[in-house]
Amino acid sequence: MRIHPHLFELNLRSFLRGLSDGFTKESIEKIPEDYWLELQVLGINIVWLMGVWRTCPGIVEECCFEEGLIQSYNRALKDWVKEDVAGSPYSICDYEFNAEICNAGELITLRKKLNSLGMKLILDFIPNHFSAGSELIGQHPEFFLEVDEGTYLKDQHTFFKPSFFSDRYFAHGRDPFFPGWTDTIQVNYFNPAARAFMIDRIKGIAQYCDGVRCDMAMLSLNNVFHNTWRGVIDEKLFQKPEKEFWAEAISEVKKDFPAFLFIAESYWDLEWDLQQLGFDYTYDKKLLDRLKDGTPRSIRDHLKADADYQQKSVRFIENHDEERSVISLGREKVLPAALLMSTIPGMKLYFEGQFSGKKTKLPVQLVREPKENVVSFIREGYHKILKIANRQIFHDGVFTVLEALPAWHNNDTYANIIAYQWILDGERAVVCVNYSGSAAQCRLKINVDDCDENIELNDLMNNKLYIRSSEEILRQGLYIELSGYQSHVFLY
């Protein structure tokens, strides 16, 4: 697989509905081969199919029509009906395929097709919880976080009585900063049997794909789990383990599947910790936050992190959890932000609909999305950006952040320009982005070793050729002038 790969997330349930009239259910066999070929041409190396696992229909009526969820459905899909609500793909019964989408044979066939095109297949692993209606609760209650009746009676939002029992109570899965997810049940990560079961489930998944995207991976860390459930978990029965679950799981799985990829959805500055436990890649939410609300300097500083850390970071400006980038960043920022995330080190994550400028953030419980027109300038912009980012230099080269210098005395607009350089053998690429709404100028000290007296700078973003003096660049730096939110990508 390429260094700094490109990952494409496909919300499979809504995408398959969109292949027909929006109401007919379709299987993955209906996805035309041309669709995968187009992704290949765009430089996609990995496809993540979100939503292949079986969910529990009985939980939908009970948990998916709360007032807040209904409001989100109204915002996203004005004409939604009950049949459009299929429950969260992150509240699953077990790691069995959703029969309406695919069976094992169909998925194996698709994986072979993707692999033949040079693309890997990623599926979801949801370590923190299962559906609150999962048959596993009745079969293996010991795998889940059980509480006493008094704890349940004090907080019937966080804790519940599953239908399998008349007198046993369990915790819903949760993020400690938010209320519990009432459609889920929490796995007990202090129980060795539960850990062994979850590792076995990953091994089962590994037979069908090339890696897993691990939902909310940091929730399974010993300290996070302990702090989330302090005072609830019976520490006489279940003590904090010496080893981290992820260190055990990744090591065990990679014994049998050495090339299997582990991608962590991660927050709270725990990305480095997860990388040290064996994760191949971890989410980089901070980059998105800085592209939305930060200064050019904060973005530059972010790109100066340790090279190994950056290479294992997943860069994105949208996914199924985030607002669509056209909305969160705005029409002016969206393409310069896309260029930045696409030409820096690390894995790049793109979401279905991102290349056409979709505006609707679809709640994960919905399986139908509204029809939206393609935004021409965004589609054309992405085709240009992805063509550039697919060049070998942005995958195999050496990356360096460049310091923008004042173009002249008392000109402080240089601070708005983000610039960096890639070098691969005798080829060099320089990316310059004015990440502000006003014109900016700067000088860049770029590498011109072994260059001719006059250098030809081929601007891939603007299809222009510039001739510049090597001597001037050495003495003063390369002069850059860019209008608001405009960019250069020089190849020389």
Topology:
Blueprint: E1 6-11, H1 12-18, H2 33-41, E2 46-50, E3 53-55, H3 57-63, H4 67-76, E4 92-97, H5 104-116, E5 120-125, E6 129-131, H6 136-139, E7 146-147, H7 149-154, E8 159-160, E9 169-171, E10 184-186, H8 192-205, E11 211-214, H9 222-228, H10 245-256, E12 261-264, H11 271-276, E13 281-283, H12 285-293, H13 296-302, H14 307-311, E14 313-315, H15 325-329, H16 331-342, E15 347-351, H17 376-389, H18 393-396, E16 398-402, E17 404-405, E18 417-424, E19 427-434, E20 440-444, E21 454-459, E22 464-469, H19 470-475, E23 478-482, E24 487-491
Parallel strand pairs: 1-2, 1-15, 2-5, 5-11, 11-12, 12-13, 13-14, 14-15
Antiparallel strand pairs: 3-4, 6-10, 7-9, 8-9, 16-18, 17-20, 18-19, 19-24, 20-23, 21-22, 21-24
Helix pairs in contact: 8-10, 12-13, 16-17
